[in-house]
Amino acid sequence: MCDSHSLSYYSLQEHTLTLTIALYRVTDYFPKSEILRNDLRAKANEIFQQVTEYSADTQRDGSIEFLTRRISTIKGYLKIAGTLQYVRPLNFVILEKEYDSIRQFLEDEKVEYALQSIQEDIKNMEYTSSLYPQMKKDARDSKQKREEKEGHENSASYKIGESRDEKVNPETKPLNAMLHEKIDRGLNGRQRIIMDRLLKSGHGKISDFYTSLKGVSSKTIQRDLQNLVDKEVLKKEGEKRWTVYSVIEN
């Protein structure tokens, strides 16, 4: 019998394979017409497949939830199977305990995963906080450049002898409009919304666009942002969920 504390990433898959084979052998004694025979095997196959992919899964939290639900189901099936008297009930008790050792291992993993995420968040918060002074300076410099450029363009639009109040060149456009003309080519609707948001706020994270892009997944928003970074329209600083995006203004 395997204890959850003795399991590891490497032994988990091997243990689950052995357990799946054992379940197949026990259910060989069931009549082929018995529905529970196929249900037990199907659930065992699902668990084995997910465990096989588990160590390579970057979103392990979701995998743990899937596996614990399947294990709870198969343990219920095993309890029922133990009452049918096709084979000795002790066989199902042993199988149930072995599946429970996998469940306990996953629960321990979930706690460890959560602790790692908290530590990572703290680290990224500290890193992001260190960026804010520079971001504020960039925002001030950007604002100053906009004001200087707008003032220069407005001044150039007056004819000799005209006062500043008499005429403004209708071709004079604010910097935001000029930026839009420069970067608008090839952008989809979502990316235009993203640019409008960033031009107003100066910088933002993926979560800042959820309200403006209702119904759009975070993965899609991330791809749009990365595409704008690749086009050298945006720059990004920080890592993972703490990545901050801002407009590159030339």
Structure description:
- It is a single chain.
- The chain has 250 residues and is mostly helical.
- The chain has two domains: 4-119, Up-down Bundle (de novo design (two linked rop proteins)), CATH 1.20.1440; 173-250, Winged helix-like DNA-binding domain superfamily/Winged helix DNA-binding domain (Arc Repressor Mutant, subunit A), CATH 1.10.10.10.
- Helices cover 66% and strands 4% of the residues.
- The protein contains seven helices and three strands.
- It has helices spanning 9-27, 35-54, 60-81, 89-156, 175-183, 189-201, 218-230; strands at 203-204, 234-237, 244-247.
- Strands 1-3-2 form a three-stranded antiparallel beta sheet.
- β2 and β3 form a beta hairpin.
- α1 packs across α4 and α3 (60-81) packs antiparallel against α4.
- The longest helix has 68 residues, at 89-156.
- The radius of gyration is 30 Å and the shape is elongated.
- The chain starts with 8 loop residues before the first helix and ends with a strand.
- The model is unreliable at 157-175 (pLDDT under 50).
Shape: elongated
Give the structural class.
mainly alpha
Uncertain runs with pLDDT below 50, 5 residues or more?
A: 157-175
Q: What percent strand?
A: under 5%
State the order of secondary-structure elements, H for helix, E for strand. HHHHHHEHEE
Total of domains: 2
Overall strand count: 3
CATH architecture descriptor of the largest domain: Up-down Bundle
In angstroms, what is the radius of gyration?
Answer: 30 Å
Approximate helicity band: 55-70%
The major β-sheet equals: 3 strands, antiparallel
Oligomer: single chain
CATH fold call of the largest domain = de novo design (two linked rop proteins)
C-alpha termini separation:
67 Å
**CATH classification, class level of the largest domain:** Mainly Alpha
Sheet with most strands: strand arrangement: 1-3-2
CATH homologous superfamily grouping of the largest domain: 23S rRNA-intervening sequence
Summarize model confidence as the mean pLDDT. 76
Query: Number of helical segments?
Result: 7
